[in-house]
Amino acid sequence: MQHETLESALKLLLGERLFLDTASRISYGYDGSFGQYVPEFVTQPLSTKEVQEIVKLANRFNEPIYPRGAGTNLSGGALPVHGGIVIDFSQWDEVTIYPNDLIIKTRPGVKTSTIHALAEAHQLMYPPDPSSSAVCTIGGNLAENAGGPHGVKYGVTKDYVIGLEVVTAQGELIRTGGQTIKNVTGYDLTKLLVGSEGTLGIITEATLRLIPKPKATQTAMIVFKDLESAGRSISQILTSGVRPSKMEILDHHAINKVVDYAGLDLPRAAAAILLVEVDGEPDALTKEMETIRVALEKIGVEHIEIAKTKEQEAELWRVRKAVSPAVVESGYTKISEDATVPLSKIPHMFKKISELKHKYQLSIVVFGHAGDGNLHPTINANMRDKTAIQNVEQAVEEIFNYAIELGGTLSGEHGIGTMKKAFMTRELGTEGVAFQKAIKQALDPDNVLNPGKIFPAEGETRLVLHND
After folding, report:
1. Is the pLDDT of residue 332 over 90?
2. Above 80 in pLDDT, residue 368?
3. CA angle in degrees (0–180, nearest 5) for 115-258-319
4. Which residues form the FAD-binding PCMH-type domain (predicted)?
5. pLDDT, averaged across the chain
6. What is the pLDDT, as a whole number, of residue 330?
7. Separation CA 441–CA 283 (nearest Å)
């Protein structure tokens, strides 16, 4: 009877934007990670008031809530692990730009690429650029504090959020920050909520800061015979006086996957390649590339190819964009991770992953954002093979443990979700996890918002990808 009453209340509130059929509920039970969970209700609110009412109903009937954008999350952040109510924001896509104030106001369902295009139409720039920007939504970016290649120079999502409208766990409405670049009134709740993975509040509107779009870019590809040179080169470039706008690295295995997939002319024997972009005033870019070349020559790196035209520049960035589809080409499942390590430790992580590749007989490539140490070890495996699943679980666990050992972190941009929560105590310690849990308990005492994420359950210490 209680279930029917909640169903009736949601139907009265949302009409045809409430989905109860099995096919719809199953389709909202997964994201870009692993696991399949079936929610009881799927809702599509189109106003803050509707979100508030859904949250109040969830409290009244003791149902968990799972906010969701486009479902591209790679750490299980959108999975409805305890059933309950999925709040699908994908249809709520209102957005307005205020170019004179250099801000955008956006609802959570707006695609990140739409924000990019709107800013660029006014010669402005919204720097965070996750690889899935063509399909992912800003709400998901806010929840996970998404990054991307521009992170090395411009930072990540939280660096461009100056105000939020948020529905609390009790269904009340609060606003954090505002419309000004500088704001130090009270606690910085905006940055607390960005990256909280929907566990502290539901973001219904964000005010984003824009910057002037750089007038020009220039790109170079640097080829390395060994990983040590690649590692030294990253720090050498960043201390040369030049701040690249992008620094992307591909290991030997990623290079060869791209050659096989896209037929691009790349050195198969290279240990790694580094793609470096600088941006700014056109006259300054040639000088900056020369500074980089001279800095690298000092440590014996000489194979530097600088794009001379926009077409050549686009061709170089095709290399980076082709990695993910090249990995998927085999038809097996792609497991994407994003452990982050100090810059000087990048070669150590590359070596470790190469060892794991042979130890567990797995297909693993490494690529990522070299300028901030955010690497993406990516495994391609047959997930119908129980032995392969176990090997993947053990390899990923060793990757996370080694990243922490090197002074790194579990996640640079994908978030914790369900995939990494078992390892949280290893990085933060018991007291560190308890401190974060205290914040969750204070703001969401009934654990209504996105339960089952971030914090490990009692005794949960291992990654489990299978359901046996």
Report:
1. no
2. yes
3. 40
4. 34-213
5. 94
6. 72
7. 54
Residue 344 has pLDDT above 60, yes or no: yes
Contacts of 5 (CB under 8 A, 6+ apart): 61
Instruction: Say if residue 31 is exposed, middle or buried (CB neighbours under 10 Å; 0-12, 13-18, 19+).
Output: buried
Cβ 376 vs Cβ 338: under 8 Å: yes
Whole-number pLDDT of residue 35: 87
Pairing mode, strands 41-43 and 85-88:
parallel
Half-sphere exposure of 170 (CA within 13 A, CB side): 7
Q: Which two tokens stand for residue 154?
A: 């411009």
Q: What's the confidence (pLDDT) of residue 302?
A: 85
As a CATH number, domain 95-212 is 3.30.465.10
Query: At 1, is the pLDDT very low, low, confident or very high (cuts 50, 70, 90)?
Result: very low
Parse the chain into domains and list their residue ranges.
2-88, 95-212, 216-324
pLDDT at 91 over 70: yes
pLDDT at 461: 83
As a CATH number, domain 216-324 is 3.30.70.2190
Which tokens is 221 given? 């590809």
CATH of domain 2-88: 3.30.43.10
Q: What is the pTM of this model?
A: 0.94
CA distance 39 to 128: 31
For residue 164, the cross-strand partners are: 176, 206
Give residues with Cβ within 8 angstroms of 162, minimum separation 6: 103, 177, 178, 179, 180, 181, 183, 190, 207, 208, 209
Q: What residues pair up with 96 in beta bridges, in sequence order?
A: 105
**Which residue(s) pair with 367 in the sheet?**
250, 376
Residue 157 to residue 435: CA distance in whole angstroms: 24
Q: What is the mean pLDDT of residues 380-389?
A: 91
Q: Rounded CA gap, 213 and 127, in Å?
A: 9
Question: How many Å apart are CA 249 and CA 320, to the nearest integer?
Answer: 8
| Residues sharing a CB contact under 8 Å with residue 76, sequence separation 6 or more, in sequence order | 31, 33, 34, 35, 417, 418, 419, 453
| 385-404 confidence digits (pLDDT tens) | 999 999 999 999 999 999 99
Residue whose structure tokens are 């009453």: 5
Q: Do 176 and 168 meet the contact criterion of CB atoms below 8 Å apart?
A: no
* CA–CA gap between residue 47 and residue 55 (Å, rounded): 13
